[in-house]
Amino acid sequence: MKNITVKQIINISVIIILLIFSFQNLDSVKVKLLFFAFELPLVILIAIVFFVGYFTARVFHHKKGKTPLE
Hints:
2 helices; 2 strands; 54% helix; 17% strand; flat
């Protein structure tokens, strides 16, 4: 039998917390952006904002001798 590592326990815990969070935020919210308005589930809006922030940080984070997406 394979031993479970601490990293695996943390990953499983984070996945469980994310699933609980997702099921508690299924209500639709109205989003207004300039002249547009639309409704979508809150969890989708949170995921979109997270990924936009993540990729923005990846693009603008510069290390010496590396390209932005390495």
